[in-house]
Each structure stands twice: as structure tokens, then as C-alpha cells.
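Q: Hi! First time doing this. I have a protein sequence and I read that you can turn it into a structure. Is that right? Here it is:
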Amino acid sequence: MYAHQIMARKVLSTAPDSTILDAANIILRHHVSGLPVVGRDGTLVGIISEGDFLHRSELGTERKRNWLMTFILGPGKWAEDYVFEHGRKVSEIMTRAPVTVAEDAQLTTVVELMETNNVKRLPVVRGGKLVGIITRSNLLRTVASLARGVPAPTENDDRIRRRILDEIEHNAWCPLGLSVIVRDGIVHLSGLITESRFRKAAIVAAENVPGVREVHDHLYWGDSFSGFCLKSPEDQESEKQAR
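A: Yes, that's right. Below is the predicted 3D structure, encoded as C-alpha cells:
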């Protein structure tokens, strides 16, 4: 399997000149643990994650400094830490040159990169520009589908997946972080919706693609103000039956 077969294509992102407050609010509202940072031309320039908010002056959690490290590293490291702890723009605290992966990378490569670099998400790039993202959740959903004995995706499955994405992504009701997995014509939809009517629209769009045998709904609903979220009715029912 390859990165493009499981990645989410409609990716939440932020700009380098956005405030850290705006970035933090996006992370909280949409229940994600990090955001790619994208320039005006679509080029990936960094990534900001929950971990970047740990050592902040607002929390009083600045890094502790001792004389030995100051002697070894010099005052320049203090200056760098000060920017990171007090900066107000995304560009001032983001991780630059993040680890990325290509669309045709095998999933073994994706997992190795995640483990080696201790990251939870990998931006997928084409020519330096962001085209998708793979998170641990995407891998988990793939494992869950394969554990049910569903065969690996065929070329026809890949065509079905592309058709579904093309049908859904241009609409205003497209789920955020939309992920589509297709195995033997059986479709699994996941992502975040902010209105219940979006769920049915996404399901109908997938059902109308030739070759689709059935559609499973893993779209979760989230309230952008309170941060409250609910799993899909199908997933809730599955959890009840598993108890």
C-alpha cells in the first residue's frame, strides 16, 4: 500500500504569519494535534503541533537554564528559546523543514519515518507543495479495515477512491480531513463534519460512484465552539455490540 491510498487530501493548515492564537483555536476546534504551515504558493514551510505550546511564557513553563549549558551553547541558544517561548506568530515557534513523505511512498516507509522521528503526522508533498497528510489515525483505520479480512486495494479500488474524492472535495460540505479507504468496492469514509446534513451528502456522493458496493460511515460530528464531538452512529453502534 502507498501513502496516496490512505492520506487525507483536504488538509487543515495555517500560514506562517498567522498568530499562534489562531493556530491554537484551529487545533482545539477541529480536534487535531498539529497543523502544516503553508506559504501563499502552497509550499510547505513548517509544522506546528501541540508540543510547541508546552514551553510558553503564558504558562510559566519556560525551559530551565543552567550555567553549564549556557557555557557550552552560548547566549544564542537563550535568544532562540526566548523567541520560541514568547513569539506571537506561527513562523516564530513552528518546526521548520518538517519530515515529509511522497505520494508514492510505501506505508512501511511512512511508519519508519514516524517512529524514527517520533512524529504523529506526516505531510505528503509533491514538488514541495502540500497535497495531503497521513496521521496515526489514518493508519489505525487502515489496520481496522484489513483486520476484518478485507483484501488489499486493487487498481479499480484506487479509481473508485479518486472518483469519490473528486465528487466530494469541491463542495462546501466536504468533511474536514476527509479520508477515503476502498477495499473490494467497500468504502470507509472518515473526517470531521460540523453539520449533520453533511454526513448524508458525503454518503450519497460515495454511493453514486460506479463500482461502490457499500459505504461505511466513520464521520464524526464536532461543534466548533465548544469542542464537543460525537462518533458516527455506525461507530457508536459497533462499540455497543463489542461490549
